[in-house]
Amino acid sequence: MGGKRWSNEENAILEAIAKEGAPLISQMHRLPGRTWESAKGHATGKGIRFSEASTWTDAERAILRQIYAGTESIKLGVSRRLPGRSYASAKAEASRLEIVGSVSRSERTGYSWIDLSLETILANGERMTVKQLAKQIGAQVQSVHNLLSKMRGTKYRIAEWTRETLTGDWAARWELGVGPDARRPARMTATECCRGYRQRLRMRAGATNPFASLVQQVAA
User: Which of 67, 93, 128, 151 could form an S-S bond across to 77 if both were Cys, CB 3.0 to 4.6 Å?
Assistant: First the structure.
């Protein structure tokens, strides 16, 4: 049965299911003799897209339309306003509904959209590293770094420094603001690195109890 040609009637049923917003898996009774895998594959080849098994609500679809009509990053908008949906899921649903992005977004160039996205994230006083910011807005790390460096001291500044690993180099945490950056701490010396390494080895071997000092205080 898998090699049987799809009839115009079956194609019409697939299109109807997609327009209704119903998950394909729940409508297979309308396509007797066809499997979900074959129906899904055939529909994909014809550009027919279905809603997910977890059906989108009308309210979610309204928010999705607002996100696409705006100017901020789609990924950022989805993470902020549709936390229960993934970026890939939102793109698939928008494609199924034939939602087209705004002209301002489709024609944007350079770093303008990155700047807007960073400003939105940091507006509430957040402090984040370049890697964290890039992951949040869905941009390349180097692009975020270039934008921050370009506007350093005039719109963004380094508020503090943090280690991404116990003995790793310092990473800047950025915030909205003007003025000089926070002073960068000195690198760890070779002696400090070795001491930290030995400490980690002892902890992994169970030789060091991280709660030992607390236990001693309670016992006292």
Answer: 67
In angstroms, the CA 100 to CA 165 distance is: 42
Asked whether the beta carbons of 178 and 155 are under 8 A apart, the reply is yes
Residue span of the structural domain in which 213 resides: 190-219
CA 161/CA 183 separation, integer angstroms:
8
Q: Which tens digit of pLDDT belongs to each residue from 69-124? A: 888 788 888 888 887 777 767 877 787 777 877 645 544 445 677 887 788 788 77
Q: What is the pTM for the complete model shown?
A: 0.42
* Cα 204 to Cα 5: distance, rounded to the nearest angstrom: 62
Euclidean distance between CA atoms 134 and 118, whole angstroms: 9
Please report the beta strands in 53-128, taking only residues with DSSP state E, as ranges in sequence order.
Answer: none
